[in-house]
Amino acid sequence: MPVDPFPRRTATPAALVPWAIELARNARGLIGAYAAGGALDARSREELILAVTDVSGCRFCAWAHTSWAGFLGDIDGEAAPEPARGYAASSTGLGRPDDPGSLAEELGEPLARSVRATVALANVLGLVGNTVDGLLARATGKRPAEPARATVELATIAGVTPVALSLLGVAAVLGAVARVAPPRTGVRVSGDDAESNLLVHVLSEALAPLDANAALRLVVARSPFTAVIGVRAGLTSATVRVGNGKLALENGLAPDAWVVVESDVGPLLRLAARPVVRDLAHIRVRPA
């Protein structure tokens, strides 16, 4: 039998079955990884998928999810926890789901399920991507033709390929948006930052995704007008200016505000504390 010079794992029924079982077991976790407000935020999800591609070597996946991550941008406090990154790397290296061990204990059950489902899906797509690369290598003579094995590989990925192509298409669009979006400027706070009221600081944290996300940043930059929105929480108020290249905050209600949004203080404080709460959720205290 000729030596196969292709170094990466490719999709075979034996390689795909463990990941398919893992996906079935953690189907709710996959929803939690992609639904808005799910257990795993989008930036951490993409970081985990890139951790998988670092090991699997799938160049299509690396390109697609680098584009996706660039589109989303980075936000302080949003990163995949270390146990999740370690699990992603070890599972991919084994070629099957690693023992989750204390993953649920360290991350909480919902987040652990989302991590496991994300790693499983990333490995399925990585195997498909590597198989496509392997078939191209066969077609160009860089790899033994082996028609029987090539037929099995092609049949194995046939059902998943449309999904993979759709994801590549989405990634191409996201990458294009990220390239044309203007640089990040940050949320501007009028006046002395030290004098800004609590509501301004809370809204600054809440608006950070607008500045990070390439599509939203593009909308803010290209909007021909500035939307002026007042926000009141309890006895505290602030004004948000969005559009015409501006994303800014100021103390109090501006006289030119279009509308005033009223909210209780509690939900806004929970919003501001969310990154801290997420980090605390990863801490477990054990007896000495």
Helix content: 55-70%
Strand order in the sheet with the most strands:
1-4-3-2-5
Gyration radius, in Å: 23 Å
In percent terms, what proportion of residues is strand?
5-15%
Count of extended strands: 5
What is the number of helices?
12
Structural class: alpha/beta
Uncertain segments are 276-288
Main beta-sheet strand count, sense and barrel state: 5 strands, mixed
Total number of domains: 2
Strand and helix order: HHHHHHHHHEHHEEEEH
Rough shape?
elongated
Mean pLDDT: 86
**Straight-line distance between termini:** 57 Å
What descriptive keywords fit this protein?
288 residues; alpha/beta; Nonspecific Lipid-transfer Protein, Chain A; 2 domains; 12 helices; 10% strand
Explained architecture:
It is a single chain. Helix 3 (42-56) runs parallel beside helix 5 and helix 10 crosses helix 11 (214-222). The chain is elongated, with a radius of gyration of 23 Å. Mean pLDDT is 86; it is low at 276-288. The chain has two domains: 13-180, no CATH class; 188-280, Nonspecific Lipid-transfer Protein, Chain A (2-Layer Sandwich), CATH 3.30.1050. With 288 residues, it is α/β, with parallel strands linked by helices. The termini are far apart. The protein has helices at residues 13-25, 27-34, 42-56, 59-72, 82-94, 103-107, 109-139, 147-157, 161-180, 198-212, 214-222, 265-280, and strands spanning 188-189, 227-233, 236-243, 246-251, 259-263. It is built from twelve helices and five strands. A five-stranded mixed sheet has the order 1-4-3-2-5.
